[in-house]
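Fold sample X.
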Amino acid sequence: MVAAFIAIFSGPVIAKVTGQCGNCHTMHNSQGGTSMTTGYEAGSGPYGTLLRANGCLGCHAATGGDIWQGVGGAPIVYNTSAPNYGDSYNMVNQGLAGGNFYWVKTDDTKGHNVFFGEGDGNLSEAPGNTRNCSNDSCHQNLHIAFGGGSSHSGGGHASLKGRFGCTGCHMVSNDGALSGFHHADDTTDAVVDTAGQGWYRFLSGHKHGDGHGVSGIEDSNWQQNPSSSVHNEYLGYVASKTAPYGLANNTMTGFCCGCHGRFHVQESSGEWIRHPSDAVIPVSGEYQYYITYDPLAPVARPDLTGWTGPSSSVNENGAVAKDMVMCLSCHRPHGSPYPDMLRWDYDDMIAGGGGADGTGCFVCHTSKDGT
């Protein structure tokens, strides 16, 4: 057993493990004649790498709408009833920072379809997709297991075979195994920007290793109770707007562009026919008044070097134009109560008046507000 443990859990991130191993793993799946499986839809077990819970939702799902932490303190991303916690800053509760897959189960338009075999009733592939990969690739659909055919045999694709849903975006380790990154420390305010740290929220592409993941600062409570000074921090980069860009700059928008690249492209004439993304927020005109960070309209920072925690300011209180609007400024990556995974009800965004003063679009577009 000792040899097995060493073989499975050896690696540079082992020093980050905290808590009892038995919270997540079982040696023989039996204690006093009782199965050791646990979590949402536990099943019979045991599972790969001796896990007690079945797949990602085994630890990251809950039945009650007020539960935001699961097995071993894992953040809940799917409640079977509407979540009534998190992100209550200016708006109704929407779950943790990424939102919640509860709304996807009720309406395909409100989140990413990650449940196996549950196709989208409106879309056949990721909107804005620029990749010429097969229909079962992670760039096309998340509810279909990646086949990993001969055309995808190189570039790290082999480790993706069979992946779908959560592991279509969250690479749980560098070698493709369901182990490793979960032993990284995500409870500090340090910048997470290397493969050895597990990347920001385990977000990494099929090209593994340093240079191919997302950088950021992780709030230890996953924004369960955010404020202007308690929140995640995201990296941004002002890239060319005439072509999609990828993970080379380690940004959240670059990661989103892996499937939605066209949404980042500006017309060759210079016109924007889609909302700018990773574009600097000016410190003039109506934008100059967004100076206190709003967790419901997060921004991306041009450089997180040396940061030891989140900042409550945007553009250094309006002094220097540097912070950016990004994909997550408007969308939640898992799901939200609103169509298109928006952070707010777009129908309430009424120029010159309405019931959403100072929120949503009006956080940046202050002159359009009714107040």
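Fold sample Y, listed below.
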Amino acid sequence: MFYSIMMEISTYNSRKITALNMLLIILVLVLHSYYVEANNFPIANAMQEFVGTNGLTGVAVPMFFLLSGILFFKGVDSVKDCLPKIRKRVRSLLVPYVIWNLIFVLWYLILQNLPGVVSYINNDVVGEVCSHNIATDLYNLFWKPINFPLWFLRDLLIMVAISPVLYCLLKYLKWGAPLLVLLVSPYVNLYVSPFFLLGGCIAIHSNLEKIDSKLVGGGIITMAMFIYIGNGITQIFIDYNHSYVSFIVYLCGVISIWRLYDLIYICSVKKPVFLNRILGYSFFIYLFHEPLFNMIKKVNLRILGEHEWSLILLYFMNPIIMCVLSVVVAKLIQKFIPKTYSVLVGGRSLPNQTDNNCKID
């Protein structure tokens, strides 16, 4: 007989996950802040390689999958327990996915008809979904997807849809399930992340408190940070990306970020209460940031010009601008049309303004 551990998430770890979601979306913005022009400037290019896609910020998506797996399989004790979770994700994931792909096309439809804006647009998005071939248009709109950052949401939706099958893998293979997916991933075009299954293993066969207890020793953290940062440095000189190596590197990155949060929180004399005002907006920032972010990048580069210092400055400044702008827009929508905001973000509510009472699911 199989018995799973009904994992509960402590208040502290609930708040940690909420805070890390914001940190990770900022890392995604930094990743998307990449400038091709930096290839002509050695220091700016080295910095982007160190921080960029295969460097430090590359951990964001795997960690999002890991946290998603933990939250999805939390409390799942049988295949039938997956069904309420699937129904809940229809509202929280599928509805925003459809809406924001349509909004993305609407954005471009408006931008293409504004004088002086065409030079800031990269693609003919409207043309891609108006080919007069319904099958092609639907493919480009919702499967490609047309709003390209939403590929993560597409893959997450697929994993949610097949979660009963994934649960069976987790039930019988346990920690071997993510390993199996990892081993076959270079040879099969999978939409299943080993990190999502790893999160499922933590939720079903262990809990976050047990994982935390195994990360107390300084040796594990030191080694993880050495591998994580060392990979970023290596990317400056050798541009490589291999599934198995990347998994190890990103796992080390996940461990490093997870534990560094604890160290920073414990060492903070005064807790950053002001962050409560922006925590919980990470999903909106993710949905909202394109194509506006690309335009911000281009406008700022034209203002400052192509220089070593400007490319380095903008690489980190643009994500801050985008983050602040997104939160302002989100708060305005919340204030004047709160029901619309709720639909746009899949019914997500903001965390309470105190450290106590911030349970998530």
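Sample Y note: The mean pLDDT is 88.
Also: Residues 82-111 form the longest helix (30 residues).
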